[in-house]
Amino acid sequence: AQTVTQSQPEMSVQEAETVTLSCTYDTSESNYYLFWYKQPPSRQMILVIRQEAYKQQNATENRFSVNFQKAAKSFSLKISDSQLGDTAMYFCAFMKRYAGGTSYGKLTFGQGTILTVHP
Amino acid sequence: GAVVSQHPSWVICKSGTSVKIECRSLDFQATTMFWYRQFPKQSLMLMATSNEGSKATYEQGVEKDKFLINHASLTLSTLTVTSAHPEDSSFYICSAPTTGSYEQYFGPGTRLTVT
After folding, report:
1. How far apart (Å, rounded) are the C-alpha atoms in residues A21 and A3?
2. How far apart are CA B115 and CA B13, in angstroms?
3. What is the mean pLDDT of residues B44-53?
4. pLDDT in tens, A27-60
5. CA-CA distance, B15 to A109, in Å (whole number)?
6. What is the distance between the terminal CA atoms of chain B, rounded to a whole angstrom?
C-alpha cells in the first residue's frame, strides 16, 4: 500500500512571493504518477500538475513547478509569483501506473496543506 | 476537459432516512467511478470504487450495507446513504478517470447534513 505525507498543515505567503509545499511518499511500485491538486473554497478539485515517475525532468506548468526526487521519494510543489487566487487547500496524490500506460485512477491523497496568499 | 456532475449539491435529511447522490460523466463514458468522503479541512478518503455492471469494491472500514453504490450505466453512478445519522454528515465527492488515461475528473461534490 502507498502512503502520502504532507507535513505542513498550513502555510502563508505574500502576494508575488514564492512558496514551496512539501510532500513525501512511500511505495514499493516503480511505475506511478504523482499529482498536485488544488481545492479552492468552492471545493472543486483542480489538477495543478502531474509527474510521471519514469521521467527525470521536473514538470512545470506556468507558475507551478515540482522538485521530484525519486530516490528520496519526495515531490514538492513550488508556486512562483503567488496570486490571491492561489489560496486553497493543496493535496499531493499518488497513482499507480499499470502496464500499457493505463491506470484505474485510484488516487492516494496526502493530508493536505492549506495555503493562504496575503495581499 | 471532461465534465463530471453531481446532484444534489447540498442535501439535508433527517436521521434515519436514506439519501441518494448521483454522479454523472457528461461527455465521456466512465466504466469506473470513485467515491470519496471529506470532512472539513481534511483529506479525501476513498470510500469505494464503482464499476459499471458489477459490484462496487469498498475500502476497508466502509460499511457496504450503509453506503450502497450502483453503477447502472457508463455515465451514472449513485451513492445511497441508508439510515443516515448525524455522523454521516460530510462532503461526498465522486471522480471518474477517462479510459486509458491518467486524467481523472472530479465532480463538484455534495454536502450532506443529517439532522
Report:
1. 17
2. 6
3. 92
4. 999 889 999 999 999 999 999 999 999 998 999 9
5. 30
6. 37
- Letter string b/e over residues A24-53, b meaning 16 or more CB atoms within 10 A of that residue's CB: bbebeeeebbbbbbbbeeebebebbbbbbb
> How far, in Å, CA of A37 to CA of B2, rounded?
16
Q: Which parts of chain B are beta strand (E)?
A: 4-7, 10-13, 19-25, 32-38, 44-51, 57-58, 67-73, 76-81, 90-97, 104-106, 110-114
Considering only A34-48, A51-65, B16-30, B98-112, which range has the smallest mean pLDDT? B98-112
Residue of chain B minimizing CA distance to A34: B102
Those of residues 21-60 in B touching chain A at CB distance below 8 A are: 32, 34, 38, 41-44, 46, 49
Cell numbers 493530508: residue: A111
pLDDT for A71-113, tens place per residue?
Answer: 999 999 999 999 999 999 999 999 988 766 555 678 999 999 9
In three-state secondary structure terms, A86 is helix
How far apart CA B94 and CA B46 sit, in angstroms, is 9
Residue A26: all three cell numbers together: 512511500
Interface of A with B (CB under 8 A): 33, 42-45, 47, 50, 89, 91, 95, 97, 100-112, 114
Eight-class DSSP state of B98:
P
Banded pLDDT at B79 (limits 50, 70, 90): very high
Look at residue B53 in the predicted model and tell me its pLDDT: 86
